[in-house]
Automatic annotation (TrEMBL):
InterPro entries: Carbonic_anhydrase, Carbonic_anhydrase_CS, Carbonic_anhydrase_sf. Pfam families: Pro_CA. NCBIfam families: PRK10437.1. It catalyses: hydrogencarbonate + H(+) = CO2 + H2O. SUPFAM superfamilies: beta-carbonic anhydrase, cab. This is carbonic anhydrase. Its cofactor is Zn(2+). Coiled coil: none annotated. Gene3D superfamilies: Carbonic anhydrase (3.40.1050.10). SMART domains: Pro_CA. Belongs to the beta-class carbonic anhydrase family.
Length: 211
């Protein structure tokens, strides 16, 4: 057994002991069910831990992560998580959180082939294509990179609003608001991008579904 593998097993035991020391019923209470108010759609980057960033405890955040926090309409994994969160858990908030320094966003700004991930990054490139005139006008590469991170998050929030899952919830009078944030790896702070959507009226008419 490698030292690393043994270490993470030992860490688990230590975490259990510390949790029970604070509350003997900690795990029994968790096992009874979950009623998180928030679905977090974030990047797979190991430096962006959803619960820790917002000071949430286990059971308070339902989480889906993928490279560059994308909302792809053919991604059955993301759609299944979204459907369960909205229709079963009845979350009141869905938050897309990107982060500055995102490798997926950086890759989408270039032309290097990485491997099978090229197919996923193409979705990110589609976002760049929609905003290329503005992005290409930004001469400073770092600023262009950060701006693209922000624009991508905003587009994913709007893509969430376009789903039948979210629009059906709104149609049924369910309280549900979509948000967009960007996390700063070098500061720990989040930036609220002020894209908060709670009805399909914020979408172009072609995307407004009629049930």
């Amino acid at each position: 057994m490698s030292d690393f593998y043994k270490k993470i097993l030992d860490n688990n035991k230590e975490w259990v002991e510390q949790s029970l020391a604070k509350d003997p019923n900690y795990f029994q209470d968790l096992a009874k069910g979950q009623t998180p108010p928030l679905l977090w759609i974030g990047c797979s980057d190991s430096r962006v831990p959803a619960n820790e960033i917002i000071g949430a405890k286990p059971g308070e955040v339902f989480v889906h992560r993928n490279i560059a926090n994308m909302v792809v309409h053919t991604d059955m994994n993301m759609l299944s998580v979204l459907d369960y969160a909205v229709n079963v858990l009845k979350v009141k908030h869905v938050l897309v959180c990107g982060h500055y320094g995102c490798g997926g966003i950086k890759a989408a700004m270039g032309n290097s082939s990485i491997g099978i991930i090229d197919n996923w990054i193409r979705h990110i490139k589609d976002v760049y294509r929609l905003h290329y005139e503005y992005l290409d006008s930004i001469e400073d590469e770092e600023k262009r990179f950060n701006t693209f991170v922000e624009i991508n998050v905003k587009e994913q929030v709007f893509d969430l609003a376009k789903t039948s899952i979210v629009q059906s919830a709104w149609k049924n009078g369910q309280e549900l608001t979509l948000h967009g944030w960007v996390y700063g790896l070098n500061s720990g702070f989040v930036t609220d991008l002020q894209v908060n959507i709670s009805s399909n009226k914020d979408l172009d008419e072609v995307y407004q579904l009629k049930f």
